[in-house]
Input
Amino acid sequence: MSDSPTSRGSAGNVIAALCSLFFPGLGQLLQGRILWAAFWLAFAAIAFAITWLITVSLLPFGWPIVAVLSCIHAAVYSPKA
Output
């Protein structure tokens, strides 16, 4: 496995994953994947809104779950050569 800046587990992907953990889509945005960034942000916002409506803002779990999924997606990114 090469240790290029865009390979799985590289420092760039780790930073992107951490950014996506705190703000879904930010890691993808840092990697230059604007459509995926918009998707994860929209997905997180929708999940947050649905869980807020269901639980009447008592247990907003949607955002953290999507944040973890976005984090994983950013961490395993490997551009096609």
